[in-house]
Amino acid sequence: MQPRNMSMSGVVDLAAVKAAGEARQKAEEARARAARQQGGGAGATAAAPPSLVIDVEEADFEQEVLQRSAEVPVVIDFWAEWCGPCKQLSPVLERLAQEYAGRFLLAKIDVDRNQMLFQQFGVQGIPAVFAVVAGQALPLFQGAAPEQQIREVLDQLVQVAEQRFGITGVPVEPGEGGEQDPAAPRVPENPALAAAHSALDAGDLGGAIQAYRNVLADNPADTEAKLGLAQAELLQRVQGLDAARVRQEAADAPGDVRAQLDAADLDLVGGHVEDAFGRLVETVRRTAGDDREAARLRLLELFEVIGQEDPRVVAARGALARVLF
Questions:
Q1: Alpha carbon distances (Å) from 185 to 150, 188, 222, 250, 262
Q2: Cα separation, 106 vs 114, whole angstroms
Q3: pLDDT in tens, the chain (325 residues)
Q4: Whole-angstrom Cα distance, residue 205 to residue 209?
């Protein structure tokens, strides 16, 4: 196995899976949930937190995989009880799901019990590993593989999900991953982060932006710094804007990307979150090249301001995925 260059090209068409799942879901939902509560497939690890490792059936694929992929990348492990390599790979994936602490969700699918999913994904042999991001599926690798190569693939997946769709996963609660000691002392706030917050509160937007960037240079995954930076940059962008003129220009020239970006910023600052997101999704839809990329990136920046778990962000991510694909 070689790590993939994840461009999201060659994705698997999940329309048929979605339609079939919706048709069968009511009839089979109770049975599927009862099976999961009793332990699901034999390949599951009993100690794995259910929020990070789940057993999935055809009946609940729509809810457990497609819908959840709007907020967290879902890694699918196709396995079977009789498959020797599966028994080597599955424990590694389960352990990494806990280690990555919510940056991806592991969904285990028993191919003997879910032939429709097996065929729809075009699986040639097992174990086979796929990912679903914002409702789009792509193959990751087939067969057991060294852990380091698996990590490289997962790191690429997490990066693609965040950069292209603003999907950063769902962080687990303290102790949920089975690794943290809930009695451990609270880590003091980073002094650099505290200085950034102080600058933002004081209205020193330039100083706050630089301070947040300094924090992220040392720790690119710091979600609090990402949020602060997004807020400071938004406030800096709207400074000095003539709101009436910007809105008139945006209305008169729907193809003027700069006017749409400025209007979206003003929408968000004014509390019109869904208007801001809808404006940028529509701009992505009607543009191409550098203009489309500028609108997409601005939308991801505004997602950071509102928060990745906000239902309006989840809905807008889904809309973005639809216009991109």
A1: 33, 9, 19, 51, 44
A2: 17
A3: 444 445 444 455 454 445 444 444 433 444 454 445 444 444 444 444 447 899 999 888 988 998 889 889 999 999 988 888 888 899 999 999 999 988 999 999 999 888 888 888 888 788 999 999 988 888 999 888 888 889 999 999 998 888 888 888 877 654 454 344 444 344 456 888 888 888 887 789 999 999 999 999 998 888 888 888 988 999 999 988 999 999 999 999 999 999 999 999 999 888 888 999 999 999 999 999 999 999 999 999 999 888 777 788 889 999 999 998 7
A4: 6
Tell me the C-alpha to C-alpha distance, in Å, between residue 304 and each of 70, 125, 140, 163, 236. 15, 39, 28, 12, 15
* Contact assessment for residue 140 and residue 132, using Cβ atoms and an 8 Å cutoff: no
The amino acid at 223: T
- Active centre residues (catalytic): 83, 86
SS3 of 107, please?
A: strand
Single-letter amino acid code for the residue at 133 = V
The SS3 of residue 262 is: helix
User: Tokens 């790191």, residue?
Assistant: 155
**Amino acid identity for residue 125 in this structure:** G
At 280, list the tokens. 């940028």
For the record, the structure tokens of 322 come out as: 């639809």
Burial class (CB in 10 A: 0-12, 13-18, 19+), 189: exposed
pTM for the full predicted model: 0.51
